């Protein structure tokens, strides 16, 4: 991949497909499904990564941080996988089918073994799914509430009996819930499985020193030969992202990922580095507490949505590396709703008029929770200015993520300026963020219609039918202005020239299965 | 004396850890929310609180920690499950290496500069040294650290930009990694040692005792080295021991710039996420170190000046 080609998307803002086409044209990348566009990638070498956070746990069931996935994908294979560009589920360790709406059948790949040599069979899958559903330490119980029972119906077949139709399950099984851990290892290690992960993925766990390094090494018995090219991966944990990038510039690491847009000029100055940038589901947004005055008034919430100049926000805070968000899904997503996207064109006059009608024409103040990092402060300043033009004064309280988010979701502020990290299935986003009683819905309230639609969004397997339900959901969440999505942040990565075949994904949680080193 | 001072350290450690524990519990923010993760529900958060005893009264939580700590068990990180003692055993050598190196640098450069300046007070050397020293105090060490990385690592490629290597594994690489952070930490120290040494030395050299020595015909070199320095050594020791504690504190920022997995990073991460066993463990060890430095200083006082007992 030549440097100019790699950088071209940044300059011209081509979309993901165009970018990948370019990469393909350069003839140096292995693309989706390992299709042989180029010669077989070179095997061997140690991929050294700068990673920005310590894992919360290396056991998929007990962890909680969205950043864990980049570690977990290396050690664990998932029952279901997704397409990198669209997140459409496709078979992984298992093929799935729904013989009737309340039954899901998983047929497993034969001859797959965990790193400890134990077979990955139907019993092992049942053990994992039951553990995810019921174990006290499981953090993913909420993902599997629709499952009534898991039954072994053959040596390589598992049948899930469902309480209600749930077509989000394939996507759910492409995430933490579908990562298969060795039952023997869980039984041996107990709670210590967090630090002794045994999966069936392309790499085996070697070591984890907190806030310093996680190391994995090749699993020679991996069942697929078209991926897992590097011999070992070292994640060097560097929380300060500018420092992480410097380690790549200095040649101490091969790649830094999930960088903030403000570092784009630094990458470009280091002429030999490759830049990769691509859309993700990471959505920067205002969360509203619709129970608090004056946000209990629809007109006020709508006014805020009208007053935000999303395109200007992308230019000012993301160096253009983002997409204006008109809902919690980006335009390239299969469930994006055209009708919802047209609801709030930027208009200060419209915002003022709505506030006038709400009796707040003279201006008013809103309390907002936000974080202390550099990027959050910059975002807050831009939004303060934009909403100020409509007479809305934002009063920020800043602190750590732990402090501020806990405070907001326990009724501490009117709004929260934060982000929603993507989920493999859009229904997860709406169930976790907007449904009745959901933790990320600060008011904990939702109309029956919305709750019913969220449930119905999981009834059909047909994406067109599902998209039609999501269209209605988005028209409600945006029509009722239950939040104010602002912008999707693009992934930004810096790679040394010897890194080949890296492919970003829409979820924004990188996999390294196709990466090779020259 | 040593035993008495060691006994005095016990209430200091208890007070410090109690105070920090109290602060962590007073500020809003809840580790249970972090632990519940991206898919948090109200029920899950409550379940986690009960599982980790986070719903217990403040004193019960602190007492439980203290009871284990006095038995040598600093418990485990709530977030990652790593034993706190393991984290500290790994991070402390990295931090101590740059602290000791910085202290040695501060003395190796600061002391000659101070003597040079004091030997001709008011002269151009004095003026020059003192301006450089002012600059050293004024420059923030994180800024200097970034300049050093940009220049000596990224442009010249002489030193690694980030990370650390254990000294026992490869002493040469270990020092190469530690030198830039140590320089950044030492800059303020050089200035301080030089200025303090100069001012006390000037005072001693202007004293009646020194005038008498001059009158007796003692050579200026002998006056400076034998009489002058001996008289200011107690002052110097005070400066250096204070400096040691301050450099220890400054590692928090410098470690972040150089991505050194040290005590600073450990406590900052833990404090931000309210991982109190880790915070407590680090505070515990840090208090021990500071108390030891002070103790060592006191012992050295009595060596340097027998009148102090």
Automatic annotation (TrEMBL), chain A:
Solute-binding protein family domain mapped to chain residues: 88-435
Domain of life according to the entry: Bacteria
CDD domains: PBP2_NikA_DppA_OppA_like_9 (cd08496)
PANTHER family named in the record: PERIPLASMIC BINDING COMPONENT OF ABC TRANSPORTER (PTHR30290)
Protein location: Periplasm
Pfam hit, one: SBP_bac_5
A biological process from GO: peptide transport
Predominant cellular place of this UniProt entry's protein: periplasm
CC annotations in GO: ATP-binding cassette (ABC) transporter complex; outer membrane-bounded periplasmic space
Protein name: Peptide/nickel transport system permease protein/peptide/nickel transport system substrate-binding protein
Molecular function terms, GO-annotated: peptide transmembrane transporter activity
Family: Belongs to the bacterial solute-binding protein 5 family.
InterPro entries, alphabetized: Peptide/Ni-bd, SBP_5, SBP_5_dom, TAT_signal
Organism: Camelimonas lactis
Automatic annotation (TrEMBL), chain B:
UniProt-annotated location(s): Cell membrane
GO CC terms in record: plasma membrane
Keyword Transmembrane helix in annotation: yes
Transmembrane segments: 7-27, 95-116, 128-154, 247-272, 278-304
Membrane topology: Multi-pass membrane protein
One GO MF term: dipeptide transmembrane transporter activity
Domain of life assignment: Bacteria
UniProt domain ABC transmembrane type-1: residue ranges: 92-297
Pfam families attached to this UniProt entry: BPD_transp_1, BPD_transp_1_N
Coiled-coil regions, chain positions: none
Annotated keywords: Cell membrane, Membrane, Transmembrane, Transmembrane helix, Transport
Gene3D superfamilies reported in the protein's UniProt record: MetI-like
Family label: Belongs to the binding-protein-dependent transport system permease family.
Listed name of the protein: Peptide/nickel transport system permease protein
Native source species: Camelimonas lactis
